[in-house]
Amino acid sequence: MDSLPIKFQVKKNGVWMLLLLAALMAASTESRKAKVVDSFEYIAMNCRAHSASITEFGAVGDGKTSNTKAFKDAVDHLGQFSSDGGSQLYVPAGKWLTGSFSVVSHFTLFLHQDAVLLASQVDINEWPVLKALPSYGRGRDAAGGRFASLIFGTNLTDVIITGENGTVDGQGAFWWQQFHKGKLKYTRPYLIELMFSDGIQISNLTLLNSPSWNVHPVYSSNILVKGITILAPVTSPNTDGINPDSCTNTRIEDCYIVSGDDCVAVKSGWDEYGIAFGMPTKQLVIRRLTCISPYSATIALGSEMSGGIQDVRAEDITAVHTESGVRIKTAVGRGGFVKDIYVRRMTMHTMKWAFWMTGNYGSHADKNYDPNALPVIQNINYRDMAADNVSMAARLEGIAGDPFTQICISNVTIGMAAKAKKVPWTCSDVGGITAGVSPRPCDLLPEQGPGKMEEGCNFPTETLPIDSVELKTCSYKINY
User: Which CATH number fits domain 42-479: 2.50.20.10, 3.60.130.10, 2.160.20.10, 3.40.800.10?
Assistant: First the structure.
């Protein structure tokens, strides 16, 4: 190099210096990248002081590796912070195969928008068997117990299961086949079940192909279910969307549900077991729900309602190609009550029935039910509704000697299908009044005429406690 002209040496050295500087800058950039901290925000009832990613516990998001132990270890570790500001477990993008796992108090499970929790089908031992629910006395699929849900918890306070519309896939086809073949000794697992708990939020998730019910809060209170999308084949068995069961102060809103059973099924126990347990579902708000379920109901009250159902308020509901709009299901032997039900601003397209109430819904837990346990069905209010392409306006069947009373239907227009039933209304053992209803209701629900029905099936004006819950903006930091 010494033999080169000085001018060329300087030029060449300058090039090397530039290359060296570029390399150092690139290294510096890579170093900064390695230390970058990204973050995101989400809305929740409560924020957490401690955080961890499922990858820190050895989880592998390849859709093949079982991560059941990783989820259990993560929850066990984060549970130590329950009394120290709580904790959140982050599930990043990937397909995370897992069996059932339980959550803890003051805990948030957060799914990235490209995260998929896949319910394991590899090892049946990843699904613990639980005792039958005390208000049911037996499982729904079989007389014995039930498999634990994919995400489970009991006796908890302040639990949040949320995400950026991340996915929980129950891979239910395996379970549906076993059910149809009669090979199940226990009731199929649900996707999410929380028991005996207070302060629950389930939000901003997509739930796919549940083995059975999707969301089942039971014996719990102060519950928010918001922004949930539920999808299952319309022929899949018992894939109910959201089933508040013996719960108080619950809000279900902004949900889209396509399922093989009721989109929302309100429950409170089965026959003598539900009567003895005696815990009603009450103070329930359902709003801005869209439902598709050709073989079942948009909102069902019962059939397991033996602990009672009271003060249900549903509004701004859309039903498309759904068997019935609002359905009340009960029977002799159920006992309990369904009362103070209010529904308004419901739109229905292509329905078998707009309204259906039946006191002849069988399916008893066992032969020990009390034939003298008669349900009380009263103060049922529907107003401001429109429907089109409906096969039958209403099928209302009370119980002989135990009629359904105080039914009020106001400002409802039902457009009948081209091949609709010749008699649009059938009524027996029911009583109530109507105003501004077309086609003309049955004689047991006499038309009051314009201006003669001042109350008009009024919707409650006072708010429930769950509507006063304030959501907070929480954050999570991701270390790369």
Answer: 2.160.20.10
